[in-house]
Structures are given as structure tokens and as C-alpha cells.
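Posting this for the archive.
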Amino acid sequence: MASFPPVEAVVRTLRVLEALNTYPVVGIAQLHRQTGIPKPSLVRLLQTLAGEGYVRHEPRRGYMLTSRVRALASGFHSEPRIVEVLAPLMDALTAEVKWPVALAVPDSDAAVIRYSTVPRSPLALLHSSIDMRLSLVTRGLGLAYLAFCDPDEREILIGMALQSGDPENAVARQRKALDATLELVRRQGYALRHPKVRPVSNTLAVPVFDANRAVGAIGLTWFSSTMPASEAVERYLAPLQTVAAHARAALIALPADPVA
């Protein structure tokens, strides 16, 4: 046991870093609930960490770790790494085209949105889409990942979808049709949402790679009444692919995580 009381500021800072490490992006309210640290103290700690380069603040979204935390040999896992790289690229794309763009990563039987430009888009249907769970077999983001991930992983994910209670995942039972859809996605290089799922809008999605491994997917969503899917592909596929290519280069350039 230590012969002196712990330094409370250090203890609180470590609690904040641990809490941040469990979320790609998190707000003050959630950090307060998880750590019990008063909100004014949290703001001061986060501003200090941001000033030192360990934390990045996203207005109207919250806070995220930066890759500098790897210098501490702490658990900087893949999702914060992907979000950090893609967030400014996605923000820039929405600033240009106005439509919201989302990043999703696989999580058991679903693709989960970990970053979204909804707050920056004047054309968004929702107020927020962070942590939304989307079907891997009907949604554009899910299909874009599923088509390009490792074949063994694909089989596991489809198996999970078959066992889930999500009605949309019933598509996974039609295996020949699903395989044909995934082959089409691979040939085209992009995926679209199943036409019978939320037809008020549609999503055009492309995979995101770290070197040769698919790690997620990004997608742009638009109102179906404003343009057909073919026009959306013509307008927005190239910009989405450019964002994905820049992200891939940035992820490859980042040093490997010190903790597996």
C-alpha cells in the first residue's frame, strides 16, 4: 500500500482516459455518469488533455481519443483510430455535398454507426445516428462491409445474422440471393440499401480498408424523392471512394498499436 494518499487529479485523469477508451465519441453527460466526476471538473480535464494532444473535441458530438495515447502504451483500439482518421474527411465531404455521411463498423450481427456528420448536414433525416445498429444484409453500410471482409469473417457474421431477432436479417436465409448481392457489390465497388427497407431514403456505401483488410464502411444518405439511385451513384461514388482511399493511406501510415 502507498504511504501517502493518491493524487486526486491523476486518479480523475486516468478515469477519464479509461472512459474515453470505451467509446469512439462520447459527451460530457455520459462521461459524468460513468466516472462520477463533476461536469465542470470534466471540462477542465478534457480541455487539458486536448491541449496536450491526447483528446480531440468534436462540437455538438463530444470527445474522442487521438492516436497520441499510444505513446502511453494504453489501449488505443481500432475504432477510435478509424474514427480519428475518417472524421475530418467525412466532415469535409458533407460540407461540400450537404448530405450526411456515416461510418459503420461490424459488431456481432450488425453494422454499428460510430461516427456521423448528421449534426453538420442541413439535409439529415435524424437528429443523431451514433450507435445505431444496422442490418449487415439489407443496409448499404452493412452490405459494403460484408462483401469485402475476410470470407471466414463473412460466414461468421452471416451466421450471427441468421440467429438474431432483427426481422431484416431474414434476408440471410435466402443465401443464394444474398451471395449474388454480395458478388454484385464486389463487382461494382459499392452497396445500396435494400429497396424495401426505409424507402423514404437510400444509402450509397463503400468499404474502408486498413491496408488490405476491411475495417468498416462509409455511406452517404439522401432522400429518395430527390434523385434515383443511379444519379446518386454518378454524383457521389467517386467522392466517397476518394475519402475511403485517403483513409486507407492514413491508416497505413499510422504506427501499429503497441497493445494487441
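The radius of gyration is 20 Å. The chain has two domains: 8-72, 78-253.
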